[in-house]
Specification:
Rossmann fold, 4-stranded antiparallel sheet, binds calcium ion, Arc Repressor Mutant, subunit A, alpha/beta
Length: about 230
């Protein structure tokens, strides 16, 4: 089925370039200039992926992403941020807002397409339903994407969701950042290992809110481990 991509970018030249490149690849593309128009487009149909510019007039790209992550209909839609800034802290902020990836301007359409395809494949792979998983107080249902901790409904971002799903499927084993990148993000994704730390931190923050952060441990010099005790 044709995948729908929403492009939110106020610079007409970049928007046209991206629209053209994506249409040429067979995507159903909608290009809009700002957050207001993005919300209108989403009301007409939730896209399979969104490209959102960092610097937008009115509501910024970051605020937009945060809003989408709070909204049930857009919570799990993969998001790539387009940014002209290169500072590391900006990238981390971008990821912390709930974006799944970022790409720095100027970028090649080839690079953009490879990022988009990687994210879409990832999203599809995780759509395959499995039986609900339980680890102690954590219950995750891959069929409905529902996560409950201590009986409370929790809404992680899409990357944290996939990370937690992977860890719950493979408890009590240490995974290096590189291994997590391969398994959770996909082998053909070119992102820094530091990105893994950002998402682990975010997942841990979420678990901490429910007093189960101790399950996700950092193993010094080795990576991360999700610990499930036998009696859990
Ligand atoms: Ca802009």
């Amino acid at each position: 089925m044709q995948k729908k991509i929403l492009v939110v970018e106020d610079e007409a030249a970049i928007r046209s370039m991206v629209e053209f490149a994506l249409q040429s690849e067979g995507f159903d593309v909608t290009g809009v200039e700002n957050g207001r128009e993005a919300n209108q487009a989403i009301a007409e149909g939730v896209p399979d992926l969104m490209l959102i510019d960092w610097m937008l007039p009115g509501v910024s790209g970051l605020e937009l992403v945060r809003g989408f992550r709070r909204n049930a209909s857009t919570r799990t839609v993969p998001i790539i941020m387009l940014t002209a800034r290169t500072e590391e802290t900006d990238k981390i902020d971008g990821l912390d807002s709930g974006a799944d990836d970022y790409i720095t301007k100027p970028f090649s359409t080839r690079e953009l397409l490879s990022r988009i395809n990687a994210l879409l494949r990832r999203a599809e792979a995780f759509e395959d339903a499995g039986d609900p998983l339980q680890a102690g107080e954590i219950v995750l249902d891959p069929a409905s994407h529902e996560l409950t901790i201590r009986g409370e409904s929790v809404t992680p971002g899409p990357t944290e969701y996939r990370l937690l799903l992977f860890l719950m499927q493979h408890p009590n084993r240490v995974y290096s950042r590189g291994q997590l990148l391969d398994y959770v993000w996909g082998e053909d994704v070119y992102i820094e290992e530091r990105t893994v730390d950002v998402h682990v931190l975010r997942l841990r923050k979420l678990l901490k809110q429910h007093d189960v952060a101790d399950m996700l441990q950092t193993v010094r010099g080795a990576g991360y481990k999700f610990t499930v005790r036998a009696n859990d």
